[in-house]
## 1
Amino acid sequence: MTGTERISHMKEQMRPSEELVARVREQVSVEPSVSPAKLAWIPRAAVVCAAALIVAGAWALPRINPGLNSGIDINGPSSGGAVTSGFSETGADIEENNASQIQNGIYIPQIVLEEPEPGVAVDMVGLIVYRGSIYTWTNNLTLSNAQEQALRGEYLGRTKGNIDEWSKQDDYSKELASSIGKEDVYTVCGYDRDFRIMTSDGQGNVGIYERLNDIWLESGNDLFGRMKLKGNLEAFCWQPLSEWDSGVENRYDPGLSEEVVNAFIDGLYDAVYMEKADWRQLEPKPCYLTLKDGTEIRLMLLKGGYVKYLGMGGNGVFRMEESVFNEVYEDALI
């Protein structure tokens, strides 16, 4: 079986049954767009990767924004007339979708707890509650002592480890409530604490947590700008999908010129945020952008100019200018 045939076979195996799709849609059905997002519990029997949690038919991504799992393809920010908050130009709610599309982007609502089904054992994504907001796990880093010390900011406290699948909404009101056990939490030097915090064991093992809810996204700058990508790239690597899917940690240098890399980053900042329900079927190619401070941005490049940030669940993607995108996707990556 060729590499292409293996990927096609894998995609076919990953496609959920109609019964599963119906069940998931029922679990994450939401009120109109002004309602907060619900934290989707994941049946333990469906978990394949404990770190990032895969539901059958879904990739390794935290399932925390049901509005972005609704299957609705929103074609970017509105370019029409005046639009009021949370409503389309006609005043109609965006039904079955908890991410509002208005003139200045798409709103990803605040997370709230969704009760699990009685009798169903579940797992959940790693999260920390800080200053009333929920930060979800996006990456683990292994750093040198010098890198860790440079990245570690103000000590915020120790997580309580009090959240599990049986937790109630009140449990989320406690400062530094978490689902990750007890870890020391810090701000991240050089980054806004309203966006990113970290855990650290003092031995170079760092967990990155980001607030990717209760935010507006219009362009790549709204996300990657907060990650300080531009002007701080250390390495651009990629990995065959088969290795990524198997959990292999190999990284490969695609041999991109500085000019191509800079154009790609500029294009990523300018990319339009939208929903793309079929993104998993668009010949994905995993990429890793390592910054000078040791942090890392994990992306999935998708045929047609789409980029998926792997720290964020759901169907949200960024649409780049295709000629710039293809200099990396078509010309440099196998």
## 2
Amino acid sequence: MRTREARRAASPPEGAEQTSPALKKRKAEKKAVPLPVRRTPINTGASIPVVQFGTYRLKGGACRSACRAALQGSYAGVDTASVYANESEVGKSLSCRTRDELFVQTKLWRSHQGSQEAVSKALTNSLRGLAQDYVDLWLMHWPGPGRHLHLPPVRKAKPVWTSGEREEIGKNGETQCPAEWTPAMRLETWRHMATETKGDGARACAIGVCNFSARQLRELIAFCDAEKLPLPAVVQNECHPYLPATEVRSVCAARGIVFQCYGVLGSGVLDLMGDEAVREIAAELGVAPAQVLVRWATQLGENVVVAVKSGSAGRQRENADVFGFELSKGQMGRLGGLSRQREGMNCMLGWLREHDPDYY
């Protein structure tokens, strides 16, 4: 048995640097040189980061620290939305980069569709929260009213979204879509959003949409052509190997619109990272399953970019570190074979609790 003196001699002196593997790893992550930010052009002449940092469900200090870590690391773009209720926290992190380096995007919630006054007020509120004079991209968050048009503002009871029991959410009535909503309202809303892109004092450098089906997107493009309005610069939709969004991506590619994937990791709901094919390919390449999924998205086309979220600085870097390897044609084919998309299907994650957006 070692004496007390021997144990003391073998221990590092008080205040000395510890050298455990876990600590070494954390220090290496902190000292890691940020990865270069890849960008791709959008139809306004600007460019968007290929891998952008998402903030859905990040709140308070956790949101602020995660955004700061991302922007100090390998990300120059951040995606938020008025309905995420975290714009002010995102705004507090933006000083990590110069404004010229940043790409900031937020979204107009459906409760502010309709009049020019409502649309402009929503952007004013977003800019105030972000502490910015302008955003690089402003997206129409949802093409239709969802359940809010016909039912009280509710959430489904746990444990699953398909549960029949519902309960009220306090103050959620403030997020209801206008009661007079019609499909034509989204087109007029687009017209109002476009006014914010004009002139030297433009408050939105580019505009786009989220969660639009191929039908709705074609309808919007036809409206833009007829009314001489700007086309969407970006369409942000759910996209991953189970739901590859093939038709919407095709419409975007044909008109020079960037397609931005969200939910590419499956958001924990679909267990994509646990899929056997994903894990096998990760092992073949010596990378993480998340890296396989992000790389899959970036290889779908030159006009495809990704918004991906993590609260961990290590995983943030891992998710952005996807350009040092390439999926083979066979590997892309194996991932393509995982599709569960039904005809016309536009969403697979949490939005299953509402009508598919192409309903509207």
## 3
Amino acid sequence: MKTSMPNLLYRPVGVRIVSYSQGMTGKGERLAVLRKRIYESVSKGAVAMSIVVYPPTLDWSWMKQRPQQLLGGLARSGRTVYYCNKTRADRGMERVEPNVYVVHHYEKWLRDDWPRIRAGSRLPVGVWCSMPMSGPSAKRDIEPDWIVYDCADDFGEWHRFERDMVSVSDAVVCSSERLYDRLSSTYPHIRLKLVRNGYDPAMRLHVESAGGDAAETNPGRTPRAGFVGAWAPWIDDLLLRKLARTGEVEVVLVGPEFGRTYDTVRREKRIRIEGLVPHADLNRHIAGFDVCLIPFKRTSVTLAANPVKAYEYLAAGKPVVSTDLPECRRMGDVVDVAVDHESFIGAVLERLKRPGDAAARTRYALARTWDHRCREVEELLAELESGR
């Protein structure tokens, strides 16, 4: 759906009045201008809800992940979000949710639409980046009042771009304690905030009627151990083949190929590959699992990961078995962590017999939703936009 440019108005809400200063240069000068904009809106009895631009990283409709969740949350709080797809298409902006506009051709949008949007609004402008390569160019092209780098992955090949990204950022957000420790050690003077991943209640996994046909409600079928996520190089396919060959469980894989193919497991009789499914259908798949899996190899990427799927599995009350990942260990008793293949398979088979406390798992997820995480981000943005 092609849409005209949104009408960017101030929203009347309760506000905290902030002062502003003059005579600054560089980042200080930009901050003074930002404070002035907010101050002027306050004097009119309104508060400026900022514009947020997300440079091309991944498409809005490809696997709903951290960027879509956080930026969607910022939009629900009243900010206007321009989410720029990685895939270029000759289409106009598309309104996909209230206050969320998908940009289908970033360079064309920068040339034709962004100058008019910027000139027609006095709202503060921010850039939210999750790829370190995009920061410096976004600063040049968008000319934002603030930039936040959201570091959620520890890809070694990205490290060479990181220093430049941090140098243009007003704050850095990260998703795991391992990332927090590395970033705070490498860049001790940055404003850094830990915001982990979360559960989306719109998936309704916590609702008992979410669907599915787990073995406990359908005794006639083989129990299922399922994984939901990208079939990436860090997935331990050997572990999954060993689990399937026990003959005690069917292994179900839900997610797209990412950097590798399913060829190594395709011929296994007790492994079923569902591939990429619509986000709206994930609850049905997860509800049909008897045990949920996080079968990651221990790599620099996975050791720094805070797996989104853990929260979704737990919301459904399902037993979760993970390889030895720091963030899963921090989840305590609601996740079974295994140190090797033998103990992983043993934990899965044990949970088939004794599933454990489903209600405790659901409570854990509901205390850590994306709404909780978005409030943590809003606190940070309020500090940036008030100059604190």
## 4
Amino acid sequence: MENSVKYLSILRVQHVNTNGAISFDETLSTFTPSAFPLSGNKKIVSPYWCDIDTRKGGVVWYYETNDRDVLFKATDDIQKTFPEQKNFRAAWVFVATWDNVAFYKASSIGQRKRNTFQCILITNGRHSFAIFLYNKIQWTTGQASGGNTDTGLGGTPAQVGFDAGDGHNYMAIRESRTPAVLQVTHLSNVRIPGKFVYRTDTETVKDGGCTTHTGGRLAIFPRYVTMFGGTVLSIGGPCVETNDKISIMFRNKPDVIMCTIFSFNAVRCITPMMYETGDVNVTLTVLHRHNTSVFTGLCTFVNPASVKPNLYRIKPDQWKIGENVTLKWGKLPFEADTIAIELLTLTKVNNSLQLHRDTYVARKLPLLKTHVFRLLSSSGQAAVLRIHPEPEDLNQDTSLLASGWSDVFVMLPPDGKFFYSACYDWDDREKKHHSLEDNKIDTCSMYYAAG
């Protein structure tokens, strides 16, 4: 919903209305839901806009919070629903609950019919989301909206959706203002009955949940990954179930890589080493019982120099063979009790650089923040350090483990003679190519050059 970041993080919620809607500029006094878009530039979020009367029973309560546990739960919800929001961290949550509420002019029989539902607004100050939860829905319409006083049905039923107030950006579920809205506890856009999740800071409200069935491509995050591999991709699109087998393939790589299920619409896959840069076609295969579905997407492999390293070499100018050196790291792209650190060297094979494991500089290391080790000589002159979880099997192929990387660096000899000799050799070769002398340069005009 356009400008909804401003609604949620700057203006915040201004009005929680008894009639099942949250408004931002003014109260919403109308109890009979009108079709979106509304007139008068009204900005509202309506989990269940209907004719509620708390004098007949029930209560409406709400609060905003930045409680750590609540933020953690909200973050987890958003990350599992929107795979591209892998780095999202909730900073503010607003919760409004219509608890066991009755409808307007309910008779003594009608007062037994109650609704309980909730709206949760979540933002990190940049991206914003809304969650609608429905615990119990037993009526759709109050008497003023044409509903029956005994059943709370008929007339103009409740509406579920959003209106940005600009006449263009709005959304309502198709059951809105129809008798079918009574079944909202059995409906969902995230395969959990009674739960709807939306992203509201985009130009149009975006559904959570599975998207590939509408013809869209895979949502892959991050889009740009290092060609060294070991990046954890969060991939959304197809709906998956616990026992499904998920695999991924990258262009020009015959290897089939198995993925893990993160949520009903998100899987996690590890990128392989790719000795090329640029856009790479990705093929995701879902084996569900005996049925196979194939989905495609795009991932861009980039030069490692374009990616922020996870490992930092302290005082890199002092990293010389034979010296004790210090390696430091912050947040790593994996969780582990113990880690391993490899030294890999770059060698040229068929005119392309390839990585080869040279040695381990640490095994079964506790997950501390720094490590000091002696830099030993290697088989190559350029090297890179890789950190990953300690494998259970010491002989396990570690190339498809989630990994963090250092920058690429030159293995400096202790006395620097390698560099001196390289410079002298370059100078000797340069002297064999005579430069033009000034008096031998004959200029000419563009006219003669073109002629």
